[in-house]
Specification:
Layout: H1 5-9, H2 11-21, H3 38-44, H4 50-66, H5 70-80, H6 89-103, H7 106-122, H8 126-140, H9 146-163, H10 166-183, H11 185-201, H12 205-221, H13 228-241, H14 245-261, H15 265-281, H16 285-302, H17 311-322, H18 326-346, H19 348-351, H20 360-385, H21 389-415, H22 437-452, H23 463-470, H24 474-485, H25 489-507, H26 516-523, H27 528-539, H28 543-553
Keywords: Membrane, Transmembrane, Transmembrane helix
Protein name: AraC family transcriptional regulator
InterPro entries: HTH_AraC, TPR-like_helical_dom_sf
Length: about 550
């Protein structure tokens, strides 16, 4: 790999590198240790006594730095990162990459990027991990070190799997499989297991089961049973995918004690989730809820979550909504909002692909509704104590009256099948009119085209813009709209926008699930606030009431 001469020879960059390497985590080596040769120092870092091992690592760094032995210094930093304070892991990784570049050895540079990728991966920074693995692959590709090459490929494949690029991951795992079959039993079995997981995610359950069976068979032949529970774990999930729910429960409960014994909280959590989903599918919701709560416990204890486990919270929210337990419903809404913030950070590539019954806006709306309801209950309690029942009765009366009025208005609107929400009337009052009749006729024709082509849906539609479409000046345009449409220009445009949305809500189910922002954008409003205000004015009811009545009257 050809490196820039400017980078290699710049005294300034060398000085910066030395400053970096002599950062706040550098320590003075123990007397005499720097006189030892590199093999002694390397062996010293393997001592069981971590304090002693660290002394050898400090001396190794000092010796290689003083001799400008970049290969040794890169290796010394790599050793030190596992002995020093974990807070400095990334600083050591960056220093390793810096000195590795000075070595001009692509294998050392690639290994340094691989190490940094592994650190990012361990910290759930998947995008950064993938970026560093790709850089590692770029350098390692020019070397003959197949072991590191395939270690990098496996790392890239594993990260792509977690980011949701399953087909790309499969391609890389298949490359690794043929190499590991000859070189490493455990890596070979791990790759078979990873292929099974990927094929399950792509919906090819049969191929997933094939690799699970192959893994179990080869594990026995190789006398390596370490991966056996993981193949069974994967097969339990496949049973769920095939809707063999009882088999899924049996298989996953069989491997749970092994996951717990190995302190593998991640796979233990996944098993609990799919056991819960299986119980839910066979209508044993109470049992399912217990398992979904263990998913939540793992999130609280380990901050562990992944996209498929997110559904636990949706089902918990639905369950407690049916139980009319507002407090627990609110608890899991709050938790799901926190879960989503973690998922959106760790799984940026995948977050757009996740089907969410409860998106963030819907969750926040539900949260506010519950909090408002609880607040009202608290206020009612306080009011009773304070003898303010009259005010409460007034609010209840007004709310009931409004609902009754809204209901009547809704029925009236729905009865107007083909008519606009409010029929457009010509102005009956006397309006000074001094426009040539032929010109009026032309402008009215253009106005009808404007309405027919729904030009009013454009954002920021103003009188000047409208005049352009009518091929006249703003003064004439406003006069004609007032005389023949009975409205001032802004009211005319706004009412057309609202009538359009009302018709869409009445005739197309999908619009009833749109957010206010989406509806506002569909009609060309500049803001959600302007849309809701205009809707209230035009229909004499809030959009929420109108949409809910549509859903109640015409369920999907």
């Amino acid at each position: 790999m050809q490196l820039s001469n400017t980078f290699l020879n710049s005294g300034l960059k060398y000085a910066i590198m030395l400053m970096m390497c002599n950062g706040m985590w550098a320590q003075k080596p123990a007397e005499g240790l720097t006189n030892k040769d590199y093999s002694e120092l390397i062996n010293g870092t393997s001592k069981s006594d971590s304090v002693e091992a660290k002394k050898f690592a400090v001396a190794w760094i000092a010796k290689s730095k003083s001799e400008k032995n970049w290969t040794q210094l890169a290796a010394a930093y790599k050793a030190m990162m596992y002995l020093d304070d974990p807070r400095f892991l990334m600083k050591y990784a960056d220093s390793t990459i810096t000195v590795a570049k000075y070595s001009k050895n692509p294998e050392i540079i690639g290994s340094a990027f691989l190490t940094k990728g592994i650190i990012h991966y361990s910290q759930k920074q998947l995008k950064q991990a993938l970026d560093n693995y790709i850089l590692a692959d770029k350098y390692i590709a020019s070397t003959n070190n197949k072991k590191v090459k395939y270690k990098v490929k496996f790392s890239i494949a594993h990260t792509k799997y977690y980011l949701g690029f399953y087909h790309e991951a499969i391609s890389l795992f298949l490359e690794c499989l043929s190499y590991f079959e000859e070189e490493s039993d455990i890596a070979y079995l791990n790759t078979l297991h990873s292929l099974g997981l990927c094929y399950n995610k792509t919906g090819n359950v049969e191929l997933s089961s094939y690799y699970n069976r192959l893994g179990l068979k080869n594990g026995k032949e190789l006398e390596n049973q370490e991966m056996e529970p993981y193949f069974n774990h994967s097969e339990g999930i496949n049973h769920f995918s095939r809707k063999n729910y009882k088999k899924a429960i049996t298989e996953l409960q069989r491997v749970l004690p092994i996951m717990q014994q190995r302190k593998d909280f991640a796979n233990e959590t996944v098993a609990h989730f799919y056991i819960g989903k299986s119980y839910w599918a066979i209508h044993q919701e109470q049992k399912a809820i217990t398992f979904f709560k263990t998913v939540d416990n793992a999130f609280l204890k380990y901050n562990y979550i992944r996209p498929d486990l997110r559904e636990s919270y949706e089902l918990l929210i639905d369950y407690y909504k049916k139980q009319e337990d507002a407090e627990l419903q609110l608890k899991y809404i709050n938790r799901l909002l926190k879960v989503d913030s973690v998922l959106n950070h760790n799984y940026k590539y995948l977050s757009k692909k996740i089907f969410k019954e409860y998106d963030t806006k819907k969750l926040i709306a539900a949260k506010q509704d519950i909090e408002n309801a609880m607040m009202v209950n608290n206020k009612i309690h306080y009011t009773v104590i304070s003898s303010l029942s009259g005010a409460i009765l007034f609010l209840v009366w007004r709310h009931t009256r409004n609902k009754k009025r809204y209901k009547q208005k809704f029925e009236q609107i729905m009865a107007e099948k083909e008519k606009p929400t409010k029929p457009i009337q010509k102005c009956t009052g006397e309006i000074p009119f001094d426009i040539n009749p032929e010109l009026v006729k032309t402008i009215l024709q253009n106005l009808e085209k404007f309405e027919k082509n729904k030009r009013y849906l454009e954002k920021d539609m103003t009188l000047i813009k409208l005049s352009g479409y009518l091929k006249t000046n703003p003064k004439y345009a406003s006069k004609i709209i007032l005389k023949y449409r009975g409205k001032k220009t802004i009211e005319y445009i706004t009412d057309l926008k609202i009538d359009y949305i009302v018709e869409k809500l009445k005739t197309e189910n999908k619009y009833r699930n749109y957010t206010y922002k989406a509806l506002a954008e569909e009609a060309g409003f500049g803001s959600t606030q302007n849309f809701t205000k205009a809707f209230n004015t035009r229909l004499e009811m809030p959009p929420a009431f109108f949409i809910q009545q549509l859903k109640n009257s015409f369920p999907l």
